Amino acid sequence: MGTLTARAANPIDALVQDKRVASAMSWLDKNLDWVTEQQIAITEIPAPEFHEGPRAAYVAKVLAACGLDVRTDSVGNVIGERSSGSSGKSKDVVLVVAHLDTVFPADTDVRVKRVNGRLQAPGIADDGAGLAALVAIARAMNETQIKAQTKIVFSADVGEEGEGNLRGIRELMDTYKGNVRAVIALDGAATDYVTTIGLASRRLDMQITGPGGHSWSDFGAPNPITALARGIVQFSRTRVPQEPRTTFNFGVIDGGNSVNSIPAEASVKVDLRSEDDAELSRLESELRKAFGSAIDEEMAAADPGNEALRLKVTVIGVRPGGKLAADSPLLTATENVDRYLGNRSRLERSSTDANLPLSQGVPAIAIGAGGQGGGSHSLDEWYDPAGRELGLKRAMLTLLAIAGAQP
To answer: Considering the entire predicted model, what is its pTM?
Structure first.
């Protein structure tokens, strides 16, 4: 007759038995309406990339009210520090981040609407949910006076989206260089994943310039827009593998002054992503070849004697990849928290603020802030706050487990 194997002890059981931690979890349960109010207030402040200032100012006030030592750094990150409970002896830092910026231009209507229990607005989930969780966890810890063995830094950072090129998290990693024990990025909604692998990407601006001219009198001159179109069509025929998964996207096209003018310039911004760095390099090479060939075709079709078109390629973003070790204490802590909460999650690869620390060998994850969301990066983005307390507790307990909550 076989014997039953005892279930392994979960260290989170002991963590939540601490009166302060239990009180913080209870505070989250009782203040969900406040968290949602903060999410709405934050979302309704426009924050296009490179113009996050007004939203940053609001979040800074909220974090200051949560008892943190708050400042804004040179690139626009809001930094709220919670000192360790070890009399300042430890220089270790656990960094919790959520990004301020959105993909939407400044004139986008970001007023939040309530529809059938959901909140609808551009940016309401990405990263309104993450920012709301950031301030909620900071306030819960302040209200219950939780101390940790390491300094905890809550940061609403800039430059995660679009052409921001992770400039916010880059600055934070430089600021606390050598002392960061772990990074937790709160990005979007849900609780069913843990991002442990950073998806590498490159973003390029392909610009073609030429002589320009009048649509009638200079007909036959090479047209940068036509050459651009040829390049897009040529590159779009490039075969990409399913394994490693590789993608590309033409996201923004610009050029020309009027319908009756041959443009002197045209450009397109391209996003390349791959699970493999070698494949990413191959894709960039194919992109450059396609646009070079497109210019040759356009010149061959133009009248002789015209000034040649010129191609300028500008790299506007590089996101390095990285991977969290399977035996990392940060991953173990997250798994233990999930086990305690009865939450099932999967490991995932994505492009987030966690990319940068992972590329530097610093343990990092990205997790959702709870609730459910959809329509990310679209005008129809939505968020359902039902069940968000699970995500808030999951993030806070993971933070306390890795930061070493003091009794």
So the answer is: 0.91
